[in-house]
Amino acid sequence: MSRIYEINNQQYPSVTTILDVLEKVALRQWAVNSACDYIHNSLENKELIAINDIFGDGVMTTRECIKISGRDAYLIIENARKEWKNISNDAMNIGTEIHDLIEKYIKHGRDAVGELKPEVENGFLAFLEWEQENIEEWTESEKKVYDPAQCYAGTLDAVAKLKNGKYYVIDFKSSKGFYDGYDQQIAAYRHAYEIEMKVKMDGMGVLRLDKETGLPEFKDYSKVYEQKLNAFFHLVDYYYASKNRRCKNIRTKK
Q1: What topology does CATH give the domain 4-38+84-243?
Q2: Spatial CA neighbour of 206 closest among 156, 161, 164, 165
Q3: With contact defined as beta carbons under 8 Å apart, do 182 and 207 qualify?
Q4: Contact status, residue 185 vs residue 151, Cβ threshold 8 Å
Q5: Are 242 and 228 contacting, i.e. CB atoms less than 8 angstroms apart?
Q6: φ/ψ bin of 127: left (φ > 0), alpha (ψ from -120 to 50), beta (otherwise)
Q7: What does the pLDDT look like over 77-91, one tens digit per residue?
Q8: CA separation for the pair 133, 62 (Å, rounded)
Q9: How far apart are CA 190 and CA 209, in angstroms?
Q10: Of the candidates 181, 82, 199, which has an alpha carbon nearest to the alpha carbon of residue 171?
Q11: Dist. CA 68–CA 85, nearest whole Å
Q12: What are 14-67's pLDDT values in tens digits?
């Protein structure tokens, strides 16, 4: 979903908006799988009927087939067409709830209260487990950052001092795996944060909070920072070229 930040009377496309120009092969396959799974599940409870086949040699065989009306078949296909969007919206809502809990916890020291969806509770418990083992102090949460030279903006999830003394920019994900674009996204946030705060970070990484198992998984992208940042800058160039527009600020290539 496209998002534009308004900063100092200037419009900046978000990091995720720029990354949307990438073709996400894994997402495409997931959408196809979602439709197929919906069709399979919808047909499981349909009535089975026996059909006899008689071949030329007079041998008759019996096979089971699904009994379904043309109207039912049409509705299943049409619903399957939209199933990926329904699942995506549910996942986004769960991810947002997890992020909100983490933000309140970091900023105000408040733990989760009230009844939570199992997926939300699992994600938050995964965060608490990883925090206990790795974090000495949280220094930022949900901070808006931008780079006026490259002309993009975004909201980074968190900045923390780890127990090893290093300062990291961290992004939280509630996805089922680590996907293409995560590395460029966290690199863009780190760069914008360093520019704005005039600091040098030690590293960056993505913390995946599994909604099903409640287990955390951290991937350190620090070693590919320069490479992924450079790749992101090329995407920024492509974004502006494809939109046939430019930022009002003077953009300088790195």
Answers
A1: Lambda Exonuclease; Chain A (3.90.320)
A2: 156
A3: no
A4: no
A5: no
A6: alpha
A7: 888 888 877 777 777
A8: 61
A9: 20
A10: 181
A11: 25
A12: 999 999 887 665 667 767 887 888 787 877 777 666 666 655 565 556 667 777
pTM of the model: 0.78
Residue partners of 99: CB distance under 8 A and separation at least 6: 142, 157, 172
CB distance 168 to 135 below 8 Å: no
Enumerate residues 6+ apart whose C-beta is below 8 A from 44.
Answer: none
Beta bridge partners of 152: 147
Using N-to-C axis directions, what is the helix angle for 70-108 and 118-134, rounded to 10°? Answer: 40
- Report the alpha-carbon distance of residue 204 to residue 156 in Å, rounded: 11
Q: Which amino acid is at 21?
A: V
**And the tokens for 121?**
């509770």
Radius of gyration, alpha carbons of the chain = 24
Residue reference for tokens 């909070």? 209
Type of residue found at 166: K
As a whole number of angstroms, the distance between CA 6 and CA 13 comes to 9
* C-alpha to C-alpha distance for 169 and 186, rounded to whole angstroms: 7
Could you give the residue ranges of the DSSP H alpha helices within the chain? 15-19, 25-44, 70-108, 118-134, 182-197, 225-243
Domain locations along the chain: 4-38+84-243
Backbone angles phi, psi at 195, to 5 degrees: -65, -50
Q: How far separated are the first and last CA of the chain, in Å rounded? A: 27
Contacts of 32 (CB under 8 A, 6+ apart): none
Q: Which residues of 141-165 are buried (b: 16+ CB within 10 A; e: fewer)?
A: bebebbbbebbbbbbbbbbbebeee
